[in-house]
Structures are given as structure tokens and as C-alpha cells.
Hints:
The complex is a heterodimer of chains A (115) and B (114).
Chain A: E1 4-7, E2 10-13, E3 19-25, E4 31-37, E5 43-51, E6 54-57, E7 64-66, E8 76-78, E9 87-94, E10 105-106, E11 110-114
Parallel strand pairs in A: 2-11
Antiparallel strand pairs in A: 1-3, 3-8, 4-5, 4-9, 5-6, 7-8, 9-10, 9-11
Chain B: E1 3-5, E2 10-14, E3 19-21, E4 24-26, E5 32-38, E6 44-50, E7 56-58, E8 64-68, E9 73-78, E10 87-94, E11 102-104, E12 108-113
Parallel strand pairs in B: 2-12
Antiparallel strand pairs in B: 1-4, 3-9, 5-6, 5-10, 7-8, 8-9, 10-11, 10-12
Amino acid sequence: NAGVTQTPKFRILKIGQSMTLQCTQDMNHNYMYWYRQDPGMGLKLIYYSVGAGITDKGEVPNGYNVSRSTTEDFPLRLELAAPSQTSVYFCASSYSSGGANTEAFFGQGTRLTVV
Amino acid sequence: AQSVTQPDIHITVSEGASLELRCNYSYGATPYLFWYVQSPGQGLQLLLKYFSGDTLVQGIKGFEAEFKRSQSSFNLRKPSVHWSDAAEYFCAVGERTGANNLFFGTGTRLTVIP
């Protein structure tokens, strides 16, 4: 049972570099999310998607971009890395719009350091 | 606007002691409520969830939580803590419509003393 898979697990970037955080899920979930977790701050939503071809901004979208070309994949793009983007990034997915299937499943996280 | 408050940043308990982690929420309607646990270096694992019905919810690993509408609370409890329960615990409110986004509290770190 793979669930939600994120790669890489760790990455160090230099200021101004770009990278893509990969996320894939094998549960046929419609909804996918990207969160960042900063110490003492809980998780904040960056972007989300309610289905292939549909994405929207969350609470903290600046400096990031996403795409959703398939149900399975939801990559997060950092174009010009900044120290403020040093964080742990979590991808999550959930099945449907409300009810008992609203439970979100999380990946293991990507720890990103920008120096 | 939705928000979640976990007033205790860090709690230390002895193994075998009882545990209660506090969670208060703000939401315009009846919320979906969740407790997640995060072990060091790991992702978040769902402990339990409340959608409707019985306000006392049982979860995995012997945890339970009680939804109290009058107090806007959803406190997590365990009668006897094990050393393996040491982790970070997050309370979350889920939207009932739209993107089903989760709004997280800032977390409570649990330390268990042998």
C-alpha cells in the first residue's frame, strides 16, 4: 500500500535555484493538497486541487506553483528559492467532498533547506 | 474564519499516567474534527475523527476524543500513556464544503517519562 509518496525526502537548495517536489497517490483521490510545516506554526495550506486540471491557492501560495495533469500526480514547483521557503513540505490527498471520506492521507514529507 | 487553538505547546507525563490534550476551534457551522499524530521525521497519521452523531469518538492506539459544541472543544484523551506515544499531536478542523481544506492547530508536543 503506497498511499501518498513524496520525493525527495531531503534537499538543500541555493538561493535563486528552482526545484520540483514530486507527489503521487495511488488511491484514486480527487483532492490533493500541499502544506508547509514550520516550527511552532502547524501546517499551512499552499495549494490544492479538486481534480485533474483544477488547482487553486491556499493560505500561503506566494513563491510556489502547481499543476495537476493527472489524478495521481500533484507536483509543487519552487521557481526562485528563498530562505523563507526553508520548511518541511507535506503532500496530502482525500477522496471526496465531505462526509466520512474527507479524511486526508499524508506523505512522509520533504525537508527543504534554502541557503 | 476557521481556526484551531491548541493552548499547550509541550506536555510531559509519566508512563502509565492519563493524558488530555486540549483543542478549541472556531468554525461557522458544525465542523469536521480530526486529531493527527506525527512521530519524529514522519508524516501525519490520523488518530480519530468526528463528523456527526456520538460526541465521544474512539480512535487508534487507545485514544478517544469528545466533541463539546457548547465549549467549541475537541479534547484528546488516553487513560494510560505508553512511551511510544511520545510525538507531536495536531488538532484540525475540516471544511464541509469546497476544497475540504484542513485548518491545523500549532500542535502539542508530548514527552513521556519512563
